[in-house]
TrEMBL record:
Family matches, as Pfam families: ABC2_membrane_3
Protein name stated in the entry: ABC transporter permease
Transmembrane segments: 39-57, 77-101, 122-151, 163-184, 191-212, 255-277
Disulfide bond as UniProt keyword: no
Record domain ABC transmembrane type-2: where: 37-280
Amino acid sequence: MTQTEERAAGPRARGGVLSDGVRAIGFELRGYFRVPDTVFFTFLFPIMLLGIFGAAFQSMGEVGQLPDGTGGVSMAAYYLPGLVAAGPLLAGVQNLAIDIARERSDGWLRRLGGTPLSPVSYFIGKIGVTLITSVLQLALLLAFAVMAFGVELPSEPEAWLRLTWLFLLGIATMTLLGVALSALPRSSRSASAVVIPVVLVLQFISGIYLQFTMLPEWLQHVASVFPLKWLAQGMRSVFLPDHLAAAELSGSWEIGTVALVLAGWLIAGLVVSLLTFRWQRRS
């Protein structure tokens, strides 16, 4: 009878973890959209930047024209892939790292650790809100690019398939790196000061705000160590003409390397998260 009860309790326990996780997603979403600065800096920020870059550099003409004058893209279209890649970084690394560090410092995680809530349910909520907000942001960013600047989106199914797996892999990688980075700030007050400079520097050296080819070659090699550069490169392979691959360090999109680097950082983020995550900071 005891074995029967344990077998029956197993599915209920698993179902409780999942149902708690789904409820946690709803809780996290409500909290996310109730904080204006979070919505602005992680949700609307890439859209605002695309508007600024597209309007400010529109007079510079097209980028990447072939000798016969064809094949060029507008500045808005050129910046779009980088800002698509920045979305998971802002939602996963910046938002999660600051959010978890604040919850730990304020004692929220310690109180959760004393409840029946499973850490799995807690992270389902965090991953769910990151995925949902990132997908919504991507849809708004693409719609804004088309309506405001007439950017032509890919027409081949293969490009959309590549966008899908790159985006999902990028979200998974950035989410785990955000969890890992959340262990670094010592308090809720220092969380933004620790995390935001890291995020800003990565964006500047990874071809998000500046054309990657404008950077010194040594800085391009430094950026190649980090996942954002590769995610942005993968996104350029989706949205830009194939001949612009010649501007990359290797002269090609290197999609296989993009996948390997992102997967490597995903594993590293998972390992560090498992080793460092605590409901409360150790003294």
